[in-house]
User: What shape does this take?
Amino acid sequence: MVRNKRLIGVKNFGRTVAAQAMTTKRSQMHVKQQLRWHACVDDAIEDMRRLNQPHSAFMQVEDHFFGNLDETCLMANADGSIRVIASASKKKTEQNTDDSRASITSLRVGTAAGTQGPFIFLAKGSRIDRPSLKNIFKEQCPSGSSIIVSPLAYVTDEAWLELVPGFCKGIRDMPVVRDNPDWWMTLTCDGFSSHLLDETQKIFSDHKIMVLKEEGDSSHVNQAYDQTVARQDKAHMRHNIQLVRRPLGNKKIDQWTLISIVINAQLKVKKEDWILCGHINE
Assistant: This one.
């Protein structure tokens, strides 16, 4: 019935995907918290309008100076489970035995105008073992994109401190932003503590970037990236993973291949998704 799309009353005609693991703590969400967050965003926007002169010129391109950043952990096969999902285009369904645990972290940014900023990837190790990635970054990725290698493939205080300088340069090289180096911009992010290290806050400030961090356990409401762009990222990722994943236990997907897959997926995200993301934050 799934293969023939006969389950017309079920989403995706009955085809399933695994739900994202998430916290169940929701005590932070209340009226006072929302008032604090929206007041914080409103104050930042007012500060930009006051500092960025001439005012009339800034108002015409204001959306280019308000954005959202977030990181996402991505795995070739998150839990190692084996699932067989019927395909509408295939008569024969094969068992997937690829249990690759390769994982990376993707950090990205976009603005309310719909422009994408640099892609930063965190990979595990001490060096980049895939020279061909340099050409992909040069030819396909936004300015400032890079790979940071560290003992752990996720954001720590040390990794955040290492990646922020190049990240800021890439942000300031985004369209319209690069033409107005003296104008401030605002980025919102989730409540992860590393985002507000004193050292990195100074680096952001030196590049005229204000960073607003959400309160803990409020991302499911306040983090616009999770509500719009992240969904598209994961949809494109699932499609790309299925194209390269090999059945019957052949060579597994490593973290360098995973980075190439993610780059392709993130470039497919539409301008309208980032625009909606920015307007949710505002």
Remarks:
- The two ends are 44 Å apart (CA to CA).
- Confidence is low (pLDDT under 50) at residues 78-84.
- The longest helix spans residues 31-51.
